[in-house]
Amino acid sequence: MSKRPYLFIENGEGMRVRDVIGIFDVDAVTCSEATKKCLKNAQDALRIVNAANDLPKSVIIKQEAYGDRIYFSGLSSESIIKRINGHD
User: Fold this and answer.
1) Per the domain annotation, does 1 fall within a domain?
2) What is the mean pLDDT of residues 49-70?
3) Which of 15, 30, 66, 88 sits a CA distance of 20 to 30 A from 44?
């Protein structure tokens, strides 16, 4: 099966799959000091979107024209990858 052109996450948020730079488990990315600094900079620049209905389980980095945007999702990274690949 081919990849879907759009990825829909919680709260009506969606994006083109080709704009997705990375999908990460939230626990894996929040333990590094460098990542914490990157998230703080993105927050200060208003480049973070919290699309999670509950506690976030994954982080999606999306490429945009004026800088990357970071999305927090309540879906696991495995579930997001399944959605992209058409196995939801």
Assistant:
1) no
2) 93
3) 15
